[in-house]
Specification:
The complex is a heterodimer. Chain A has helices spanning 20-29, 68-72, 97-101, 133-137, 148-162, and strands at 7-10, 48-51, 56-59, 78-81, 84-87, 108-112, 116-120, 143-146. By secondary structure, chain A is α+β, with helices and mostly antiparallel strands. The longest helix of chain A is centred in the C-terminal third of the chain and has 15 residues, at 148-162. Chain B is of the alpha/beta class. Chain B folds into 2 domains: 17-100, Alpha-Beta Plaits, CATH 3.30.70; 158-460, Fe-only Hydrogenase (Larger Subunit), Chain L, domain 3, CATH 3.40.950.10. Chain B is 36% helix and 12% strand. Chain B contains 18 helices and 12 strands. Chain B has a 4-stranded parallel beta sheet with strand order 6-5-8-9, sandwiched between helices. In chain B, helix 6 (161-181) packs across helix 8 and helix 6 crosses helix 14. In chain B, 54% of the residues are buried. The chains are: A alpha+beta, B alpha/beta. At the A-B interface, helix 1, strand 2 and helix 4 of A face helix 11 of B.
Chain lengths: 169, 468
């Protein structure tokens, strides 16, 4: 039970599709100032807001224990680091097998300089003390960092206290 | 003053603010900040702007986070959108659903037209924010670099809106004293915020007499450029191209108001925002951060601290009191820093003892707060002599044309820092009261005569129209 990795999940009832999470993600991972005028590269986020006419929610990496992307990666550019699945862009050769392998579409190939494309995926803002920036900036508080063991324990407790499952008619 | 027939031209023909239907996600963040509820549409669907209600304040532009991604499918190419928005082709920043019309190309063309004598003015709020677009911290104070950049762009005269703000105080202070002592219409409201003016015209036209008849500093500067300014430089006024750099998108609407031509020409030919000026500077290859401090041209560019605080809520009031106090009591105001008028959003009230008179004043930011006072006037319960109204959250430093912060959590910091820098700039200027400005004194002596005199009435005062 120890190694269930945390990941960010969205509440599609709260998400408005505003894309602040995408902008915040880009700002954290790129060298920019405080304003839009300082952004000179196209915004390339690591999470992708989806809208289907009924609601919206961003999709991002689930940090899968069995990381299909890591298994599929031909040059072995995908690895685990401190509880998250990471891409070593220097090893990536744009073969796109990771895109095929990921069931969530959470990994993308994005421009890296003028000529190459490299793998791009959520890294839970490695290095940010307060945690993922998308969670912090969402104006609707629609994003949450899930810690699976803690999540399970909380739900166990609630279920026991509510006693819902013990009612028989 | 003589009645002019003023035509009513709204935003329908030439909208300043628009929402790109391809990019809008219907998140409704703009709807929440629109001061006049002019944005319509279902949740999750593209929104549209009621141009008859819109006051072009640009708060929607500031908050909009629905950007055109390189991964979006089925949207027009970036080049097409940039052309539609009037953006220079060198602009690299992301495009958003809510946007304002662009006029940078017109300024670029004018600067390369050797037949034109170009004069530029910048609003007080520009100098505490423009550096943000070059990577400096929020609220960095850079008036010297701003003037140097304008000089390097090739403007013939680097004048300043703050000078005209000092002139506005002379006129508006005198107008207030006149109304108070001769039973004129009270409360008097400031008229420098064009979004506020349009709001009164379309929502409370029956209360238009309460607005000061003074033009905004932008428009006062514009008309003076092509009259007094033409004399100073011995240039034919038809050769003068008058540019204004503003933190405000509504100023684009204001400069096109049909009646704003008392010089005999368009008093302000074009308005660009703080962001557009930064884009022009980058387009010209100027290294803003490396610029040595520049200077403003004195005749219409010398300014006092009172002029520069116009950019924040409470600033116009404080500037007016610094001068009004001395005009009435013939004594210097004991403390120049009127902290009781400074503050943030909402309605702030104060009573100021000026000689025998107790002046009751209010400072309002946000049109929904201004509505409260308008309703009080209609109910006969408004107890003020003078009210300052600014549409934007903390005044012009938070205007629709200012640099747009990337992260929502940085917005309050941007407001606080830009405000603080404004007061720092004021505190460090050699002159802090509008009537002490030697360039303003010279203007009256050589050209205008006296405040509210014949020339002032003709050039610096205006009339309003009902838009109901």
């Amino acid at each position: 039970m120890e190694r269930l990795l945390p990941f960010v999940i969205a509440d599609s009832e709260k998400c408005t599709g505003c894309r602040v999470c995408e902008i915040a993600c880009h700002a954290y991972h790129h060298v920019v100032g405080k304003t839009i005028g300082t952004v000179i590269e196209p915004i390339v986020p690591k999470l992708y807001v989806q809208r289907n006419g009924r609601g919206a929610a961003p999709v991002q990496c689930h940090q899968c224990e069995g990381a299909p992307c890591a298994w599929a990666c031909v040059p072995q550019a995908i690895y685990f680091d401190r509880g998250r699945v990471m891409v070593d862009t220097t090893r990536c050769d744009s073969c796109r097998d990771c895109i095929e392998a990921c069931p969530f579409g959470a990994i993308q190939l994005v421009p890296d300089g003028e000529t190459s494309l490299v793998g791009n995926k959520c890294d839970l803002c490695l290095g940010r003390e307060q945690g993922p920036v998308c969670v912090a900036q969402c104006p609707s508080q629609a994003l949450r960092l899930i810690n699976p063991p803690k999540e399970k324990r909380t739900k166990n407790r609630q279920a026991a206290e509510n006693g819902k499952y013990l009612v028989r008619k | 003053m003589s009645e002019k027939i003023i035509s009513v031209i709204g935003l329908d023909a030439n909208p300043v603010i628009q929402i790109d239907q391809e990019l809008c996600t219907g998140c409704l963040r703009c709807v929440a900040v629109c001061p006049v509820d002019a944005i319509e549409g279902a949740k999750g669907q593209p929104q549209t702007i009621r141009q008859d209600l819109c006051v072009a304040c640009g708060q929607c532009v500031q908050i909009c986070s629905a950007y055109a991604s390189i991964f979006d499918e089925g949207i027009a190419p970036r080049e097409q959108k940039m052309a539609e928005r009037g953006l220079l082709s060198s602009v690299k920043e992301p495009l958003f659903a809510a946007y304002n019309s662009g006029d940078g190309l017109k300024v670029k063309a004018a600067l390369s037209d050797s037949d034109l004598f170009t004069m530029v003015q910048c609003a007080p709020a520009v100098r505490v924010a423009i550096a943000e677009e070059f990577g400096l911290p929020l609220g960095s104070l850079t008036p010297g670099k701003m003037a140097a950049a304008l000089r390097k762009l090739g403007f013939d005269r680097v004048y300043d809106t703050n000078f005209a703000a000092d002139v506005t105080i002379m006129e508006e202070g005198s107008e207030l004293i006149q109304r108070v002592t001769t039973g004129g219409t009270l409360p008097m409201f400031t008229s420098c915020c064009p979004a506020w003016v349009k709001y009164v015209e379309q929502t409370y036209p029956e209360l238009l007499a309460h607005l000061s008849s003074c033009k905004s500093p932008q428009q006062m500067a514009g008309v003076l450029f092509k009259t007094y300014g033409a004399q100073v430089d011995k240039v034919a006024p038809e050769k003068i191209f008058s540019v204004s750099v503003m933190p405000c998108t509504c100023k684009k609407f204001e400069c096109d108001r049909p009646e704003m031509n008392d010089s005999g020409y368009r008093d302000v030919d074009v308005v660009i925002t703080t962001r557009e000026l930064a884009q022009l500077i980058k387009d010209a290859g100027i290294d803003f951060l490396d610029l040595a401090e520049g200077k403003f041209d004195k005749a219409l560019g010398n300014y006092t601290g009172a002029g520069t605080i116009f950019g924040v809520t409470g600033g116009v009031m404080e500037a007016a009191l610094r001068t009004g106090y001395e005009l009435i009591t013939k004594e210097a105001i004991p403390d120049l820093n009127l902290n009781f008028v400074r503050g943030g959003e909402g309605i702030r009230k104060a009573s100021v003892k000026v000689g025998d008179l107790t002046l009751k004043v209010a400072m309002v930011s946000g049109l929904k707060n201004a509505k409260v006072i308008m309703e009080q006037i209609k109910a006969g319960t408004a107890d003020y002599h003078f009210v300052e109204v600014m549409c934007c959250p903390v005044g012009c430093v938070s205007g629709g044309g200012q640099p747009k912060v990337l992260l929502p959590s940085d917005k309050p910091t941007s407001y606080a820092n830009r405000t603080a820098s404004t007061y720092v700039h004021d505190a460090n200027l050699p002159l802090r009261k509008s009537h002490d400005n030697p360039a303003v004194q010279k203007l009256y002596k050589a050209f205008l005569g006296e405040p509210l005199g014949h020339e002032s009435h003709h050039l610096l005062h205006t009339q309003y129209v009902s838009r109901k």
